[in-house]
């Protein structure tokens, strides 16, 4: 397993692999030909960036059996998803501010993220599995009261696309079995989510295959797999959110009112 990470140094975006508390700096292309430079950097000294710059962020709705059962909604026959603005991306560790144009509930959603490593279109499940570069942690922050504000039009994209509402990272982990993973979310130190990825309606390879029939997926694109039980509002003046997945790491961000 490798853990790929991006960081800023001297105003330039760099990337490498994380081993313990050291970043092994690479050059080239994370999704193409990457070569170690031989230089290392202490993780504590690095200014982390989101681990990829996706051309699009795809976010799933109703992709876990347990949540569908709680909401008393049918399991969908095909993936239900929206596109989240790439400008919503923020770095691991960043502080996310309440949008000045919105005063309603803001919700955390801890999720597994799939990162695409090669162009993928009309792919079989085997081809889709080969196109998956790795996995990351996602907090799919949502302005919950906007979604149904207008009775004629569900505003999913707007609710999820405010600046800062798309933190993910800190790394992309490769060569792991997603079916063995568990997503945990802590809000201000209290565990709010703890659910198995194996409960997904559409597991990663199947999901990538089906979405690739609708649109071409490109290297670096991010698919947020949807969330399960335990989603809730961030109510304090300052809210610390930790999304952790063993084998990938811990994504930490703060939301301030």
Description of the structure:
Helix content is about 10%, strand content about 45%. The chain is mostly beta strands. Strands 1, 2, 3, 4, 5, 6, 7, 8, 11, 12, 14 and 17 form a twelve-stranded mixed β-sheet that branches. The protein is globular. The model has no long low-confidence stretch (mean pLDDT about 95).
State the main characteristics.
257 residues; mainly beta; twelve-stranded mixed β-sheet; five-stranded mixed β-sheet; 4 helices
Q: Which secondary structure elements does this structure contain, and how are they paired or packed?
A:
Layout: E1 3-9, E2 12-19, E3 22-28, E4 34-42, E5 47-49, E6 57-61, H1 65-71, E7 80-84, E8 89-90, E9 95-97, E10 106-108, E11 110-116, H2 125-131, E12 132-139, E13 142-143, H3 156-160, E14 166-173, E15 182-187, E16 190-196, H4 204-212, E17 222-224, E18 232-233, E19 238-245, E20 249-256
């Amino acid at each position: 397993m490798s853990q790929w990470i991006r960081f800023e140094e001297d105003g330039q975006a760099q990337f490498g692999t994380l081993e313990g508390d050291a970043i092994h700096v690479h050059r080239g292309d994370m999704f193409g030909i990457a070569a170690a430079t031989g230089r290392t950097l202490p993780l504590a000294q690095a200014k982390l960036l989101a681990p990829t710059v996706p051309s699009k962020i795809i976010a799933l709705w109703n992709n876990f059996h347990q949540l569908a059962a709680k909401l008393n909604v049918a399991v969908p026959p095909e993936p239900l998803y929206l596109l989240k603005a790439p400008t919503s991306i923020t770095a691991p560790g960043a502080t996310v501010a309440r949008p000045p144009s919105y005063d309603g509930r803001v919700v955390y959603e801890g999720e597994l993220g799939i990162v695409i490593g090669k162009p993928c279109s009309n792919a079989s499940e085997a081809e889709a599995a080969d196109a998956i570069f790795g996995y990351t942690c996602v907090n799919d922050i949502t302005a919950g009261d906007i979604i149904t504000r207008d009775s004629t039009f569900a505003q999913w994209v707007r609710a999820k696309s405010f600046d800062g509402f798309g933190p993910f990272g800190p790394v992309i982990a490769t060569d792991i079995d997603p079916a063995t993973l568990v997503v945990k979310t802590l809000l201000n130190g209290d565990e709010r989510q703890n659910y198995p990825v194996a409960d997904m309606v559409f597991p990663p390879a199947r999901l990538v295959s089906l979405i690739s029939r609708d649109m071409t997926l490109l290297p670096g694109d991010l698919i947020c797999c949807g969330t399960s039980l335990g989603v809730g509002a961030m109510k304090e003046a300052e809210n610390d959110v930790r999304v952790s997945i063993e084998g990938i790491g811990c994504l930490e961000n703060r939301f301030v009112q």
